[in-house]
Amino acid sequence: MKGVQYVVDDGGQRTAVVIDLRKHAELWEDFYDRAVAESRRDEPRESLESVKAKLEKRRSRRARG
User: Fold this and answer.
1) Engineered SS bond to 20: which of 1, 3, 6, 28, CB 3.0-4.6 Å?
2) What's the structural domain count of the chain?
C-alpha cells in the first residue's frame, strides 16, 4: 500500500507503522477514534433516553431564557 511503511525488528517482525497522512488521513482518523474509544472503555455508560432527556431539558431552558 503506497504511503504506508512498516518498521521491523531484528527478527523481521513488524513493530510499528508509518502512515503518510496526506494520503491516508481517513485511516489515521479511524485509528485515533479506536484509541479514544478504548481509553474510555471503563467509563460509566449513559442510556440514550437519559441523554435525550438532558438535551430536551437544556432546550426548554434556552427557549425560556
Assistant:
1) 3
2) 1
